Structure formats: C-alpha cells, structure tokens
Fold this sequence. Notes:
This protein is an alpha+beta fold and about 375 residues long. It has helices at about 5-15, 20-35, 50-55, 65-85, 95-105, 110-125, 130-215, 220-245, 260-270, 290-310, 345-355, and strands at about 275-280, 315-320, 325-330, 360-365, 375-380. Helix 10 (about 290-310) runs antiparallel to helix 11 (about 345-355). The relative contact order is 0.06.
Amino acid sequence: MSLQTRPLRAFRAFRRPPDAAVDAALAAAVFLAQLAPFTTMREPWSPALYAPILGASAPLLFRRRAPLAVMVAVLVAVPVYDLIGGGPSQPIWYGWLVAVYTVADRSPRAHRLAGCGITVLSTFLIVRPGSLDTAVRGTAIWLAAYALGRAAALRRERAADLEERAVRLERERRLEAERAAERERTRIARDMHDILAHAVSLMVVQAESGPLVVRSDPDRAEAAFDAIAASGRDAMGQLRRMLGLLKDGEHARDPQPTLGRLPELTGRVGETGLRVSLTVTGDPATLRPDVDVAAYRIVQEALTNTVKHAGAERVDVALTWEDDVLRITVTDDGRGPGAAGRPGGRGLVGVRERAAACGGDAAFGPAPGGRGARVEARLGLGAGA
C-alpha cells in the first residue's frame, strides 16, 4: 500500500462509524427529542410516562436486524403514552418515523407491504374522533419517511450495481491486457522463429559447403565464411531490435525489415549456391507497416524452408501487385511439399497467421508441373483489411 492511499483509507474508516454506534446515538437522540416537550411543562407529570417514551426509542437499537418488528414495537408504545395521560402533547413521534424509514430502506417487499398495512390500520385506531387533521398530518409525514427510505434503498442498490460494473470492467480490462500480452508474445515468438530459422539455415548450408571447397576454391570458401558472418550479424541485429521493443530501450524505434530489403534477403540466400530470382509485377503501392513486415517475413520463411528441406537448385520469388491485394508466390524445384511445404511446420503456420492478420490467406502445395513446392500468400491492401 502506498503512502498516499494509507491516509485516504484511514480517513474513510474514520468517517464511517460502526452501525451499532450509529443506532445507539439515533435511539438516544430520539429519546431526548421525545422528552423535549416536558421542559416547557409546569405541572407535575407521572414518571410512568417515561416508559412509552423509552419504548418508542430503545427498539431502534435493533432496527437493522428486524425493521418490521421494531416498527410494531414503536407503534405499540405510542398509544400507551395517551392511555397514561397527564403529559405534554407529542407533536411528532420521531421513533415511529425512523422505524418507517428503516422498513422502507431495508425490508423486502412483503415486509414493506405489511408495514404499510399496519401503519394505515393503526392510524385510524389511534387517532381520536374529530382529529382528522392529525390523521392527515400523520399520514403525510409517514409517506415522506417511507419515500425517503425507498430513495435511500434505490441509491444503495444503484451504487452496488455501479461498483459491480466497475469490478466487471476492471476484470475485462485485465483479461484484454492478458490477451494482448499473449498476442504480443506469440508475435515475438513467430518473429524470433523466422529470424533464427533463416539465419541458422543459411549458416549451416554455408558451413557445410566451406570445407568442401577450402582447398580447391579458397575464394569460394572465404565467401562462404563471409556469408556465415553476415547472416549471424543480420540475425543479431534483428533480435536486438526485437528485444529493444520489449524493454523500450535505444533500439525500440528501429524499423523491422520490410519489402525494401528483399533484394538483400534473396542475395544472402543466393550465396548458398541456390539460384534465386525476384520478379515484381504491377504498380507497387504504399503498404501499412504491419503488411510490409508480414510480406518480408512470409518470403523469409518460404526461402528458409526451401534452403532447409527442399534440396532445390532454383527458387523464384514473385510479387504481384493487384488493385487491393499483394500476391506473394515462392516456388522451388526441390523435393516437393513433403519436404519444403510441410503443412504442420511452425514456420508455415506462422505464414498463414501473418496472412490472416493482414486480411488475406495463404496456401501451400506442389509447384506447377508436379516438381517442387509452392507457397502463395495474399495480403489485403485496403484500410479495412
């Protein structure tokens, strides 16, 4: 708990005394208010008058536990005061008003109806003949007390509903934050898979070919080792940028690779000995950042699968710009879908997810002619994709 919230909670606790203390103070105040008319009376009065006054105020100590019973007890004590006689006139029986208010505020519907019936019946039984104005005044006061009690109950119910709604909204906010975090973790895992799988695949292929030509073709061996180093540096740079996004550090604003770096990507793959061609058809459009990154990663994953599994000699990358779709096609002449186009591979699942996130789709299968594999993705270019 922070230092700022501790005084606030202590202040709230100080402002709200226990219910028992409130009821005790209320009963005492009602008792003193019913004794007030005696201060202006000069004639002596019977001490027995204190009994009905106490009977109209002491039951308020239990008004929260049994509101209807307390109201009945107060109504019984009121006529006893008139039967004893000899005392000053009581203009208002405050204990009865508090009891009516409590019944309206805290009792269920059946008890409230019973309380209303008892009040109406007692009004006509207690009021003396010829005191119609007293009955009207008492009824008006009773209705006011009952209305105030119902208003308090409705206000409390509304406050409870608002509090429950706030708790529900806070819970939904936490769940949405957790879902967003899960989506972000999935995206980061997918990006790291693409980066590491691509870099490691190129490095393995170059490392395997280097010893074979180190004596017969030293220049080619040196180029292979240079390609290994370049692939490693590129992977490290991309991972550093990605981790920078997590910790919001100095690399948080560095851009991720986009279609503008496809020639560089195909060039690195070509250094493995695989012939790579890149063709662009149509008029290139300005892509949203998420679509631009997704397009690069889809080509990267398709080329990685070709290098790792296809055993191909040639791979063709084609970008076709249509009105509202960018079509990406990667075709190789390798061993076919059983190797390079494995439907259950994590990378190809990532390709399908990236395409779907951009309002498109992806498909994998054999290349035309039955030899090799083909990866095709369609990315939506519209604002609502």
